[in-house]
Protein backbone atom coordinates (compact mmCIF):
# COMPACT_ATOMS: atom_id res chain seq x y z
CA UNK A 1 0.00 0.00 0.00
CA UNK A 2 1.16 3.55 -0.78
CA UNK A 3 0.03 6.11 1.79
CA UNK A 4 -0.61 9.68 0.62
CA UNK A 5 -0.68 12.55 3.12
CA UNK A 6 -0.98 16.29 2.63
CA UNK A 7 0.16 19.33 4.59
CA UNK A 8 0.07 23.04 3.89
CA UNK A 9 3.10 25.33 3.65
CA UNK A 10 2.98 29.12 3.39
CA UNK A 11 5.68 31.59 2.53
CA UNK A 12 6.03 35.27 1.76
CA UNK A 13 7.44 36.68 -1.48
CA UNK A 14 10.39 39.08 -1.19
CA UNK A 15 8.07 41.87 -2.34
CA UNK A 16 4.51 42.23 -3.58
CA UNK A 17 4.21 41.22 -7.23
CA UNK A 18 1.80 43.16 -9.43
CA UNK A 19 0.61 41.56 -12.66
CA UNK A 20 -2.35 41.99 -14.97
CA UNK A 21 -4.15 39.16 -13.12
CA UNK A 22 -3.72 40.74 -9.66
CA UNK A 23 -1.27 41.12 -6.79
CA UNK A 24 0.62 38.43 -4.90
CA UNK A 25 2.42 38.76 -1.60
CA UNK A 26 1.90 35.45 0.20
CA UNK A 27 1.87 31.95 -1.27
CA UNK A 28 0.29 28.73 -0.09
CA UNK A 29 1.19 25.30 -1.48
CA UNK A 30 0.18 21.74 -0.62
CA UNK A 31 3.04 19.36 0.16
CA UNK A 32 2.21 15.75 -0.74
CA UNK A 33 4.08 12.86 0.84
CA UNK A 34 3.96 9.32 -0.49
CA UNK A 35 5.12 6.55 1.87
CA UNK A 36 6.06 3.38 0.01
CA UNK A 37 6.16 -0.29 1.06
CA UNK A 38 9.97 -0.24 0.66
CA UNK A 39 10.18 2.04 3.70
CA UNK A 40 11.22 5.06 1.64
CA UNK A 41 9.17 8.13 0.84
CA UNK A 42 8.91 10.95 -1.64
CA UNK A 43 7.50 14.46 -1.44
CA UNK A 44 5.96 16.67 -4.08
CA UNK A 45 4.10 19.95 -4.20
CA UNK A 46 0.83 21.27 -5.61
CA UNK A 47 0.96 24.99 -6.34
CA UNK A 48 -2.28 26.17 -7.97
CA UNK A 49 -2.61 29.94 -8.33
CA UNK A 50 -6.29 30.65 -8.91
CA UNK A 51 -6.02 34.27 -10.15
CA UNK A 52 -3.52 33.04 -12.76
CA UNK A 53 -4.62 29.51 -13.73
CA UNK A 54 -8.22 29.42 -12.49
CA UNK A 55 -7.57 26.36 -10.33
CA UNK A 56 -8.67 26.61 -6.70
CA UNK A 57 -6.79 25.18 -3.74
CA UNK A 58 -10.00 23.44 -2.66
CA UNK A 59 -10.30 21.55 -5.96
CA UNK A 60 -6.70 20.38 -5.73
CA UNK A 61 -7.13 19.26 -2.12
CA UNK A 62 -10.25 17.31 -3.10
CA UNK A 63 -8.36 15.60 -5.92
CA UNK A 64 -5.50 14.67 -3.60
CA UNK A 65 -7.96 13.19 -1.08
CA UNK A 66 -9.43 11.12 -3.91
CA UNK A 67 -5.94 9.98 -4.96
CA UNK A 68 -5.22 8.85 -1.39
CA UNK A 69 -8.24 6.54 -1.53
CA UNK A 70 -7.11 5.15 -4.88
CA UNK A 71 -3.58 4.46 -3.67
CA UNK A 72 -4.76 2.58 -0.59
CA UNK A 73 -6.14 -0.19 -2.80
CA UNK A 74 -3.69 -0.01 -5.70
CA UNK A 75 -2.01 -3.17 -6.96
CA UNK A 76 1.77 -3.18 -6.37
CA UNK A 77 2.55 -3.27 -10.11
CA UNK A 78 0.07 -0.55 -11.12
CA UNK A 79 1.09 2.80 -12.61
CA UNK A 80 0.56 5.24 -9.73
CA UNK A 81 0.32 8.38 -11.82
CA UNK A 82 -2.08 6.88 -14.35
CA UNK A 83 -4.28 5.49 -11.58
CA UNK A 84 -4.55 8.99 -10.12
CA UNK A 85 -5.18 10.52 -13.53
CA UNK A 86 -8.01 8.03 -14.15
CA UNK A 87 -9.60 9.15 -10.88
CA UNK A 88 -9.28 12.90 -11.55
CA UNK A 89 -7.29 14.52 -14.36
CA UNK A 90 -6.26 17.73 -12.61
CA UNK A 91 -2.71 18.71 -13.65
CA UNK A 92 -1.92 20.75 -10.53
CA UNK A 93 -2.81 17.79 -8.28
CA UNK A 94 -1.10 15.25 -10.54
CA UNK A 95 2.03 17.41 -10.45
CA UNK A 96 2.36 16.84 -6.71
CA UNK A 97 2.10 13.07 -7.10
CA UNK A 98 4.52 13.08 -10.03
CA UNK A 99 7.12 15.09 -8.09
CA UNK A 100 6.79 12.73 -5.13
CA UNK A 101 7.37 9.75 -7.45
CA UNK A 102 10.53 11.33 -8.90
CA UNK A 103 11.69 12.30 -5.41
CA UNK A 104 11.26 8.69 -4.27
CA UNK A 105 13.05 7.34 -7.36
CA UNK A 106 16.00 9.66 -6.73
CA UNK A 107 16.25 8.55 -3.09
CA UNK A 108 15.78 4.85 -3.95
CA UNK A 109 18.52 4.87 -6.60
CA UNK A 110 20.84 7.32 -4.83
CA UNK A 111 20.98 9.42 -8.02
CA UNK A 112 20.59 13.22 -8.18
CA UNK A 113 17.35 13.91 -9.93
CA UNK A 114 18.70 15.80 -12.96
CA UNK A 115 21.04 12.91 -13.78
CA UNK A 116 18.24 10.42 -13.18
CA UNK A 117 16.23 12.23 -15.88
CA UNK A 118 19.22 12.47 -18.22
CA UNK A 119 22.84 11.56 -17.42
CA UNK A 120 23.94 14.44 -19.69
CA UNK A 121 22.27 17.06 -17.47
CA UNK A 122 24.17 20.32 -17.09
CA UNK A 123 25.38 21.61 -13.74
CA UNK A 124 23.77 25.06 -13.68
CA UNK A 125 20.61 26.71 -15.02
CA UNK A 126 20.49 30.38 -16.13
CA UNK A 127 17.66 32.31 -14.49
CA UNK A 128 16.01 35.69 -14.87
CA UNK A 129 14.92 38.19 -12.26
CA UNK A 130 11.20 39.01 -12.23
CA UNK A 131 9.93 42.58 -11.89
CA UNK A 132 6.27 43.31 -11.29
CA UNK A 133 4.26 46.10 -12.88
CA UNK A 134 5.84 48.76 -10.66
CA UNK A 135 6.00 52.47 -11.43
CA UNK A 136 9.03 53.67 -13.40
CA UNK A 137 11.26 54.35 -10.43
CA UNK A 138 10.37 51.11 -8.67
CA UNK A 139 10.95 49.04 -11.80
CA UNK A 140 14.25 50.78 -12.48
CA UNK A 141 15.46 50.23 -8.92
CA UNK A 142 14.53 46.53 -9.04
CA UNK A 143 16.20 46.10 -12.42
CA UNK A 144 19.39 47.84 -11.29
CA UNK A 145 19.54 45.58 -8.22
CA UNK A 146 19.09 42.50 -10.43
CA UNK A 147 21.91 43.61 -12.72
CA UNK A 148 24.20 44.20 -9.75
CA UNK A 149 23.39 40.68 -8.52
CA UNK A 150 24.60 39.25 -11.82
CA UNK A 151 21.33 38.50 -13.60
CA UNK A 152 21.75 38.59 -17.38
CA UNK A 153 18.00 38.72 -18.04
CA UNK A 154 15.05 40.45 -16.36
CA UNK A 155 11.36 39.76 -16.94
CA UNK A 156 8.96 42.67 -16.54
CA UNK A 157 5.22 42.26 -16.09
CA UNK A 158 3.28 44.43 -18.54
CA UNK A 159 -0.34 45.13 -19.39
CA UNK A 160 -0.83 47.62 -16.56
CA UNK A 161 -0.21 51.34 -16.86
CA UNK A 162 2.78 52.95 -18.58
CA UNK A 163 4.52 49.93 -20.08
CA UNK A 164 6.70 51.94 -22.47
CA UNK A 165 7.92 54.30 -19.76
CA UNK A 166 8.55 51.44 -17.33
CA UNK A 167 10.54 49.45 -19.91
CA UNK A 168 12.59 52.48 -20.94
CA UNK A 169 13.50 53.02 -17.28
CA UNK A 170 14.46 49.35 -16.92
CA UNK A 171 16.69 49.48 -20.00
CA UNK A 172 18.41 52.60 -18.72
CA UNK A 173 18.97 50.87 -15.36
CA UNK A 174 20.44 47.60 -16.69
CA UNK A 175 22.35 48.85 -19.75
CA UNK A 176 22.55 47.23 -23.17
CA UNK A 177 23.95 43.82 -22.19
CA UNK A 178 21.10 42.53 -20.01
CA UNK A 179 18.21 40.85 -21.81
CA UNK A 180 14.70 42.13 -21.19
CA UNK A 181 11.61 39.97 -21.65
CA UNK A 182 8.05 41.05 -20.99
CA UNK A 183 5.04 39.08 -19.81
CA UNK A 184 1.55 40.34 -20.60
CA UNK A 185 -0.34 37.31 -19.22
CA UNK A 186 -2.79 37.82 -22.10
CA UNK A 187 -3.70 41.31 -20.90
CA UNK A 188 -3.44 42.98 -24.31
CA UNK A 189 -6.54 41.04 -25.31
CA UNK A 190 -6.51 41.34 -29.10
CA UNK A 191 -3.91 40.85 -31.80
CA UNK A 192 -4.18 44.48 -32.87
CA UNK A 193 -3.62 45.84 -29.36
CA UNK A 194 -0.73 43.42 -28.78
CA UNK A 195 1.02 44.42 -31.99
CA UNK A 196 0.64 48.11 -31.20
CA UNK A 197 2.05 47.53 -27.72
CA UNK A 198 5.00 45.59 -29.08
CA UNK A 199 5.76 48.33 -31.60
CA UNK A 200 5.91 50.83 -28.74
CA UNK A 201 8.27 48.56 -26.78
CA UNK A 202 10.53 47.42 -29.62
CA UNK A 203 13.02 50.32 -29.19
CA UNK A 204 13.89 48.91 -25.75
CA UNK A 205 15.17 45.71 -27.38
CA UNK A 206 13.14 42.72 -26.20
CA UNK A 207 14.45 39.18 -25.83
CA UNK A 208 10.87 37.87 -26.05
CA UNK A 209 7.29 38.50 -25.03
CA UNK A 210 5.30 35.91 -23.09
CA UNK A 211 1.60 35.41 -23.80
CA UNK A 212 0.66 38.79 -25.36
CA UNK A 213 -2.81 37.34 -25.99
CA UNK A 214 -4.47 34.04 -25.11
CA UNK A 215 -5.18 31.36 -27.70
CA UNK A 216 -3.17 29.55 -30.36
CA UNK A 217 -4.44 31.47 -33.36
CA UNK A 218 -3.99 34.82 -31.68
CA UNK A 219 -0.42 34.00 -30.67
CA UNK A 220 0.37 32.88 -34.21
CA UNK A 221 -1.01 36.13 -35.63
CA UNK A 222 1.01 38.23 -33.20
CA UNK A 223 4.19 36.30 -34.03
CA UNK A 224 3.54 36.76 -37.75
CA UNK A 225 3.20 40.50 -37.23
CA UNK A 226 6.27 41.23 -35.11
CA UNK A 227 10.00 40.60 -35.02
CA UNK A 228 9.85 40.11 -31.25
CA UNK A 229 9.98 36.38 -30.38
CA UNK A 230 6.66 35.32 -28.89
CA UNK A 231 6.48 32.70 -26.14
CA UNK A 232 3.42 30.62 -25.33
CA UNK A 233 2.60 30.18 -21.65
CA UNK A 234 -0.98 30.07 -20.32
CA UNK A 235 -2.32 28.94 -23.69
CA UNK A 236 -0.42 25.67 -23.11
CA UNK A 237 -0.51 24.02 -26.52
CA UNK A 238 3.20 23.22 -26.92
CA UNK A 239 2.83 21.35 -30.22
CA UNK A 240 0.74 24.01 -31.93
CA UNK A 241 3.66 25.76 -33.63
CA UNK A 242 3.72 29.32 -34.90
CA UNK A 243 5.60 30.84 -31.93
CA UNK A 244 9.31 30.96 -31.22
CA UNK A 245 9.32 29.66 -27.63
CA UNK A 246 7.24 27.76 -25.08
CA UNK A 247 7.32 28.43 -21.34
CA UNK A 248 7.04 25.15 -19.41
CA UNK A 249 5.77 24.84 -15.84
CA UNK A 250 6.04 22.00 -13.34
CA UNK A 251 2.58 22.86 -11.99
CA UNK A 252 1.12 21.51 -15.25
CA UNK A 253 1.66 17.82 -14.57
CA UNK A 254 5.03 17.70 -12.84
CA UNK A 255 8.41 16.71 -14.27
CA UNK A 256 6.82 14.06 -16.47
CA UNK A 257 4.50 16.67 -17.97
CA UNK A 258 7.37 19.11 -18.56
CA UNK A 259 9.45 16.49 -20.36
CA UNK A 260 6.52 15.54 -22.60
CA UNK A 261 5.74 19.19 -23.36
CA UNK A 262 9.39 19.91 -24.14
CA UNK A 263 9.54 17.08 -26.68
CA UNK A 264 6.34 18.29 -28.33
CA UNK A 265 7.41 21.94 -28.43
CA UNK A 266 10.86 21.19 -29.81
CA UNK A 267 9.36 18.91 -32.47
CA UNK A 268 7.18 21.87 -33.51
CA UNK A 269 10.29 24.07 -33.85
CA UNK A 270 10.01 26.09 -30.64
CA UNK A 271 12.67 26.80 -28.05
CA UNK A 272 11.77 25.92 -24.44
CA UNK A 273 12.48 27.27 -20.98
CA UNK A 274 10.93 26.79 -17.54
CA UNK A 275 9.27 29.16 -15.10
CA UNK A 276 7.49 28.85 -11.78
CA UNK A 277 4.06 29.96 -10.66
CA UNK A 278 5.79 31.23 -7.50
CA UNK A 279 6.19 27.64 -6.34
CA UNK A 280 7.63 26.43 -3.08
CA UNK A 281 11.06 24.83 -2.74
CA UNK A 282 10.09 21.40 -4.12
CA UNK A 283 8.51 22.89 -7.21
CA UNK A 284 11.51 25.13 -7.85
CA UNK A 285 13.94 22.25 -7.28
CA UNK A 286 11.97 20.02 -9.66
CA UNK A 287 12.03 22.72 -12.35
CA UNK A 288 15.78 23.29 -11.90
CA UNK A 289 16.48 19.57 -12.28
CA UNK A 290 14.20 19.35 -15.32
CA UNK A 291 15.79 22.40 -16.96
CA UNK A 292 19.25 20.95 -16.36
CA UNK A 293 18.22 17.61 -17.88
CA UNK A 294 16.71 19.40 -20.89
CA UNK A 295 19.89 21.51 -21.19
CA UNK A 296 17.85 24.70 -21.47
CA UNK A 297 19.89 27.71 -22.60
CA UNK A 298 17.34 30.52 -22.22
CA UNK A 299 17.04 32.08 -18.79
CA UNK A 300 14.37 30.35 -16.70
CA UNK A 301 11.92 32.10 -14.40
CA UNK A 302 12.95 30.18 -11.30
CA UNK A 303 14.47 32.91 -9.13
CA UNK A 304 11.16 33.50 -7.36
CA UNK A 305 11.75 31.99 -3.92
CA UNK A 306 13.41 33.68 -0.97
CA UNK A 307 15.05 32.51 1.15
CA UNK A 308 16.03 29.79 -1.31
CA UNK A 309 18.92 28.01 0.42
CA UNK A 310 20.73 25.77 -2.05
CA UNK A 311 18.52 27.17 -4.84
CA UNK A 312 19.66 30.77 -4.34
CA UNK A 313 20.74 32.31 -7.67
CA UNK A 314 24.33 33.47 -7.90
CA UNK A 315 25.56 35.56 -10.82
CA UNK A 316 22.39 34.78 -12.75
CA UNK A 317 22.45 31.00 -12.42
CA UNK A 318 21.15 28.35 -10.02
CA UNK A 319 23.55 25.50 -9.40
CA UNK A 320 21.87 22.14 -9.79
CA UNK A 321 21.84 20.33 -6.41
CA UNK A 322 24.05 17.24 -6.38
CA UNK A 323 22.15 15.62 -3.53
CA UNK A 324 19.33 13.12 -3.94
CA UNK A 325 15.68 14.07 -3.80
CA UNK A 326 13.96 17.43 -3.99
CA UNK A 327 14.62 18.75 -0.50
TrEMBL record:
Top-rank taxon of the source lineage equals Bacteria
Q: What is the lineage of its organism?
A: Bacteria, Bacillati, Actinomycetota, Thermoleophilia, Solirubrobacterales
Q: Locate the Mandelate racemase/muconate lactonizing enzyme C-terminal domain: which residues? A: 137-229
Q: Which Pfam families does the entry link to? A: MR_MLE_C, MR_MLE_N
Q: InterPro entries this protein is in? A: Enolase-like_C_sf, Enolase-like_N, Enolase_C-like, Mandelate_racemase_C, Mandelate_racemase_N_dom
Q: Which residues form a coiled coil?
A: none
Where would one find the signal peptide in this protein? Answer: none
Q: Which UniProt keywords apply?
A: Isomerase, Metal-binding
Query: Could you identify this protein by its name?
Result: Mandelate racemase/muconate lactonizing enzyme family protein
Family according to the record: Belongs to the mandelate racemase/muconate lactonizing enzyme family.
Q: Which SMART domains match?
A: MR_MLE
Amino acid sequence: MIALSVRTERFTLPSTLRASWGELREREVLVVRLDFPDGLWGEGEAAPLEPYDGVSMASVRAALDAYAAVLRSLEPTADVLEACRAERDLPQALAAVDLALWDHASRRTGTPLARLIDPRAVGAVPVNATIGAEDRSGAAAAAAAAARAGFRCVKVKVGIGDDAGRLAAVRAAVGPEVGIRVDANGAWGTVEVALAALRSLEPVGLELCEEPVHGVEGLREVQAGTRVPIAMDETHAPGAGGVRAVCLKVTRGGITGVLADARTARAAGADVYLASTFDGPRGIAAAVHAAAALRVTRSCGLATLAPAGALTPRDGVIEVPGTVGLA
